Amino acid sequence: MYAANSQLIFGVICTAICAIGLIPIGVLLILANLHGRKALDAAQSWPRTTGEIIQSQVRESANVLDENSGALYLLDVQYTYQVDGKPYTGRNVTLSDPQSYNTAAEATAISNRYLVGRQVNVYYNPQNPATAVIECRKPGNFALLIVGILSLIFAACMACASVSTLAWPYLSPQ
């Protein structure tokens, strides 16, 4: 009897610890998504100037997150622009750079939009003109938000399971 109760309590404690651990993860993922969206909203009101592409290439890089999945392909685009007569060099295509792709073809398709010598619109931060992008759009990827919400839902389910497991002996008719 004592061993069964201690195993039950150990299981409940482990479940509760996992639930408590998932809460900050879920909150951080949701906040990261909201922060990124806020930054993108702000960038859409940035002033625009004309710039010129000075480098556009795709670099192969090892995938440090998953060694078995092969290489990642990084987009390396550089452009020059001027703000109030002062020259700047930018490297970010979007605010979510560095952009990585699973296939060389995918990265090359983006790189081909920015051929060397091409004139582009550059959107720059008026408080810090060295911060600039050439694509000012919202990404369609809601992965952070979805995983964050799912983490919170899973944590709530785990917490409810822990509480109900502890309370069940007291609630069930004897």
The profile of the biggest β sheet is: 6 strands, antiparallel
Helix share of residues? 40-55%
Overall residue-averaged pLDDT value:
79
How would you describe the shape?
Answer: elongated
> Rounded to an integer, what's the Rg over CA atoms?
25 Å
- Terminal CA distance reads 17 Å
Class from helix and strand fractions: alpha+beta
Name the quaternary structure: single chain
Catalogue the unreliable spans.
none
**Helix/strand order, N-terminal first:** HEEEEHEEH
Q: How many separate helices? A: 3
Strand fraction: 25-35%
In the residues, how many domains can be counted? 2
Structure write-up:
The chain is α+β, with helices and mostly antiparallel strands and about 170 residues long. It folds into two domains: about 1-40 and about 145-170; about 45-135, no CATH class. Helices cover about 45% and strands about 30% of the residues. The protein is built from three helices and six strands. The chain has helices at about 1-45, 105-110, 145-170, and strands at about 50-60, 70-85, 85-90, 100, 120-125, 130-135. Strands 1, 2, 3, 4, 5 and 6 form a six-stranded antiparallel sheet that branches. Helix 1 (about 1-45) runs antiparallel to helix 3 (about 145-170). The longest helix has about 40 residues, at about 1-45. It is elongated and about 80 Å long. The mean pLDDT is about 80.
